[in-house]
Amino acid sequence: MSEQQATKRGSAPADGAHSRSGKKPRAAQPQTIAPAAVVKQEREEEEGDATQSSSKGEASQSSSEGEASQSSSEGGGGAVAAATGLELEAMDEPQINVTIGVSLLHCHACFLPLKPPTFKCEGGHVVCCTCRGKHGEACGRAAAYAACRELDAVLLDAKLPCQYQEFGCRSLVAYYQAADHDGACPWAPCSCPAAGCDVLAAPARLVEHFRDDHRWPVTSLRYGDACRLPVPAPAQGCHVLVGEGDRSVFLVSPCALGAATAVSLVRVRAGGDATTAAQFKGVLWVELPSSKDKLVLTMPAVRSSDLSDGFSAADKNMFLAVPPVLLHDASGEAPELMVCIDEPAGDAAANSTPPARCSGRLQ
Fold it and tell me: Does the keyword S-adenosyl-L-methionine apply (predicted)?
């Protein structure tokens, strides 16, 4: 094929030359193929590097998470086991109610409830620890004793509700401690001293009764500080004082004593002064705001009472008599009654009066 024929079939003319057909040739495109390929290759390499780095990072993260998960699983196994053990320990053991002969829980020597530790003689008699000597005089086979540890466990766990449960006490008491608890239970009921009133309730609930049904004023008392009150008139009834902290209940009771007024102080508590609770000390005095003269009554021990026999200050051995000259002073000033009660040292919180449950009914 000749050179002319090749040119006619479309061969590109040389730069700056026109084809023999007379048409203007198209401008030649810049030669950028090689640079584009290089750029593309570089981008592909960068993307590949980034993908590889990302893959390595994800693999490293996955490895770290796997190691952390494995460590957590390995370390958490013991923690879960420990937590499960604590939960099992915290679970309350099932309880049952049983009926048992009382003689099985009483000492063969003193006939009182058995108090751990207990012992059994060779004759099969179970006695308290302190009764072994006494029992030896009555039993010919009491030369040796064996400890009854299984029975001790039963005695420690054999509990019954307080006998004053209906008055608000929710305690479960070991059988051998029941008598001591009942003698000191703050929920033991007391009577309302108002004439014609037969309400019987725990001291905390009596406060609500005094306030709501008899309209007796109730004042909070801080031990060791003087509490200022008006001298109560006999027709107005008592003034109720409630100790801060232990919630002990006191009554300031007035009554007519001729033309004078007798005022006395009593602590509302079942068992009276026979309880083992420590005694409060009290001071009562009457004064006029403009005078320094005082009538003072010092009470070495504030009397406790369940008020079952009522409460009239004049019937008691200790009261403060306020003469009419103070009750009806010429200046027109009303006398003030000051009450100061000292809390006994070592009076345990267990001997205190609990707060009232407002929703509970009076018994």
Answer: no
